[in-house]
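Slides due. Your pick:
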Amino acid sequence: MLNLPNILTLLRVVMIPVFVALFYYPTPRSNMIAAFVFVLAALTDLLDGYLARKLKQTTKFGAFLDPVADKIMVCTALVLIVEYYSVHGRDFITDFSFNLLISIPAIVIISREILVSALREWMAEIGKRAVVAVSKIGKWKTTIQMIAIAGLIWRHNNIMIYLATVLLIVATILTIWSMIVYLKAGISNMMEPVDPAKSAIVSNK
């Protein structure tokens, strides 16, 4: 079970509290280091998937833990960012409404993660998990999202904050787009009659 790809995934989980501690650590460069740790964790996501396929070491444990680690990492980062800019946003940006351009995308992205995760779990229950497999749009969304989050964590200057916010908005648009794609892929299956026996099993989980 603990092959190299799974170790990298577990490492990503371990890096989350490290990233949180650095985010709040009161030193001038802690935000830059926190951004670096976040990017490093994001890169392990690319690497573990590549190695799992290359080395033919895909496991059920890895298939479960990898998306969970990603969602915990992203949702944690977004919550920290929203909290920080709601309190300290005016240190960088005088327009308070600018914070809405961060908080609203964060809500959309987190909501999408919950919805798609629930959809994938349900599709897996009926043996059609492949119908909602990760799409190219989802991969682009993830890449842009990670860059945006890293920039908002680093917050080197106002230009970086503005550019990162623009990327976060782009990621949000792709988030909605990919969510629609996933829902369209699964909607026909949702409308199919459900076997009462299977329905009881799913509802009791």
